[in-house]
Design brief:
The structure is a single chain. This protein has 172 residues and is an alpha+beta fold. The protein is built from four helices and seven strands; from the N terminus they run βααβββαβαββ. It has a seven-stranded mixed beta sheet with strand order 1-2-3-4-5-7-6, sandwiched between helices. The radius of gyration is 16 Å and the shape is globular.
Length: 172
């Protein structure tokens, strides 16, 4: 298993993992699979924001899971906060890949002087909540009935991790 930064050449593999999560889980509060054409814009936004896309690859360089982060909110004072996501192929879950990806995202966030990492997780996803807690994320609130999917209302739990960075925050 190897952890590397992903590029647009992994677009199709990333999209397959995302679309499976859309269709079969509450990890993404979305209904319709995304088209391959959306990936160019997605990667462009990641590049523009200097947001990494981290992938876990097997020995044959097949993508098993990925994670990324982006702006938490788009106002200037939130520049030290990001919201992240981690997705793992269904057959590869519960093998420690999510932890490896999230640990790398935390490391990269510190390198980029991020101060707060935010996770929005469906309240029934106890495995993801537990993983985040093991890595130092703390519960910070629940938005009740934030989404509606699979015929029921979904509660969205927020967890956050405060990083020691930046050493010298600015308002510019």
């Amino acid at each position: 298993m190897k952890i590397f930064l992903c590029s647009e050449k992994e677009s199709e593999q990333i999209l397959n993992i995302l679309n499976d999560a859309i269709l079969n889980t509450t990890a993404i509060y979305d209904y319709k699979p995304r088209a391959i054409e959306s990936m160019g814009h997605w990667f462009e936004a990641k590049k523009r924001g200097q947001f990494p896309v981290v992938g876990a690859f097997d020995e044959a360089n097949k993508l098993l899971g990925f994670g990324t982060y982006g702006s938490f909110r788009n106002w200037a004072a939130y520049k030290y906060s990001v919201e992240h996501s981690v997705y793992v192929k269904a057959a590869e879950r519960r093998k420690g890949l999510g932890r490896l990806i999230l640990e790398e995202l935390i490391r990269l966030a510190e390198v980029q002087n991020i101060h707060t990492m935010v996770a929005g997780i469906d309240s029934e996803n106890k495995v993801s909540i537990s993983l985040h807690e093991k890595l130092g994320f703390q519960y910070s609130g629940t938005i009740k009935q934030a989404g509606y999917k699979f015929g029921k209302w979904l509660d969205l739990v927020f967890l956050q991790k405060l990083l020691v960075t930046p050493l010298y925050p600015t308002e510019d």
